Request: fold
Amino acid sequence: MFKGLMHSHSGMGLLLLVVALINIALALSASKNPSGLSKIMRICHVIVLMGGRFNILLGIALFVIMKLSVLSSWQYMISIFLWGGAEVAAKRLVKPELQSVGDGISPTKNLLFGFLAELGVLILIFLCMYYK
Reply:
């Protein structure tokens, strides 16, 4: 069971990185057809947010199963706080822009910056996890 949790946790993290990269590619190409791509960007963004939240829960379950000390495993706590940055970027930058893109307005730089912020947070979390 432990191996399965470990593989699902790391696999979900890699999937989130791929979907975040897809979001950036869609945001760069959204100026041509903003209303058509807004639905796909919303779906991908929901996958990133919900998958990230689920991955945090998987990480906490692994933390409890492995019976680690909070002081000796600082990277787990930093990862949880870093995910808060992704949530803030999603709420402040991405969601309002996706709403306006859905209405047919061409996207501004905030959409791309929001997606880049989410990708940056995911990369920082990966660095904390893999370079213990």
About this structure: Helices lie at 2-29, 34-66, 74-102, 109-130. The mean pLDDT is 87. Residues 21 and 62 are 27 Å apart (CA to CA).
